Amino acid sequence: MACLSTLHRASLLLRPPPRYLDVARPGSITSTERENLASFLADASDDIRLNVQMPALAMNYFDRYYALLLADGVVVHKQVLELYAIVCLTLAAKFYTQCDPSIEWMCKVTEYKFSADLFFAVEMQVIERLEWTLHVPLPHTFFEMIFRGMDTPEGQAVVANKNVMKWGCMLIDLTVFGYSFLDYSPLVVACGALLCAARLETVNDKAIVRTLDSICAECGITQGEARACEVAMMASWERCFPNSLKAEKQSFMPVRPDEDDCADKAVVVRKEEERSDSEERTDTTTPTSVIDAVDWTVR
To answer: Do you know which InterPro entries this protein is assigned to (predicted)?
Structure first.
């Protein structure tokens, strides 16, 4: 638990500001548009077979960087958001894997709207604004640590059930699309995923509760946070895949929905309630060219 606590404290310093999009600013995106960007990154990541955690890491970079720009009053035209997003994905791939996405691929995935020079310039800008703090503990890391730590006589039933790990990872992956999940630290997201997975697989609830109690005592989080995240995760999954859980509960075998379908449906989780907000905050300013807009933000 000591390692978990240390990692948790480190992760708090690298979290994007929760609800940073709630305050309307000139040119700022809505939560629905953010979800669209997350879907775009998931598709791009799948295109070159990156690790499934890369979109989550890329969105961490993007949220932190974009929040800094908004806090400084920088107006970022929406035409260039795909550029920033794909640069963040490329940084994640370079930092965490041996994959170095090519400039040709970056141009292709953004439909040749940006030049190679712009990708290099923005990459340096993002790194400098993030002060080179690219090593970010993700919820997946916490979940695996908690899961391994349950390999005790009381928790053996949980660890032996491989579906618990599968469910947890799937639910964590889905949180990448949800803006509201920025309210929770990576550790809390991992705890929420464990609670969801245990409920879906009807495993030893006492072992889960004891583990959660230990984590709360050691790391300074509350069970209320973990339970709230659990509820949010279940609601998010059920909205995206209304028929999925019924089938899975009958078979007790979590079968991951088609990934393309997952990416498409995740972005509509909050689309209806965000539609009016999106209309009110539509960016009406247009730069003389996309390159001019990027050059302005780089300066």
So the answer is: Cyclin, Cyclin-like_sf, Cyclin_N
- Residue pair 129/68 in contact (Cβ under 8 Å)? The answer is yes
Within the chain, residue ranges assigned H as helices are 2-12, 31-47, 54-71, 81-96, 103-109, 116-129, 139-149, 156-160, 162-175, 186-201, 205-219, 223-240, 244-251, 259-266, 271-280, 290-298
- Decide: 215 and 146 in contact? Cβ < 8 Å: yes
Contact 27, 75 (CB under 8 A): yes
> What pTM value is reported for the model?
0.79
- Distance between CA 7 and CA 220 in Å, rounded? 12
- Token pair belonging to 130: 């993030």
Identify which of 214, 199, 209, 198 has the alpha carbon closest to the alpha carbon of residue 160.
Answer: 198
- Residue/partner pairs of 285-291 with CB below 8 Å, 24 or more apart: 285/26, 285/27, 285/75, 285/77, 286/77, 286/79, 287/77, 287/79, 290/77, 290/79, 290/80, 290/113, 290/114, 291/114, 291/115, 291/118
Share of the chain above pLDDT 70, in %: 77
Task: Assess contact for 256 and 40: CB atoms under 8 A.
Answer: no
| CA gap 148, 172 in Å, rounded | 17
Token pair listed for 82 = 């795909």
Collect all residues with Cβ–Cβ distance below 8 Å to 160 and sequence separation of at least 6. Answer: none
The token duo for 145 is: 């640590």
Q: Quick check: helix, strand or coil at residue 15?
A: coil
Question: Could you give the CA distance from residue 41 to residue 57 in angstroms, rounded to a whole number?
Answer: 10
Q: Is the dihedral of CA 53, 55, 60, 61 positive or negative?
A: positive
Q: Is 182 helix (H, G, I), strand (E, B) or coil?
A: helix
Question: Tell me: the pLDDT tens digits for 190-205?
Answer: 999 998 888 888 766 7
| Whether 167 contacts 200, CB under 8 Å | yes
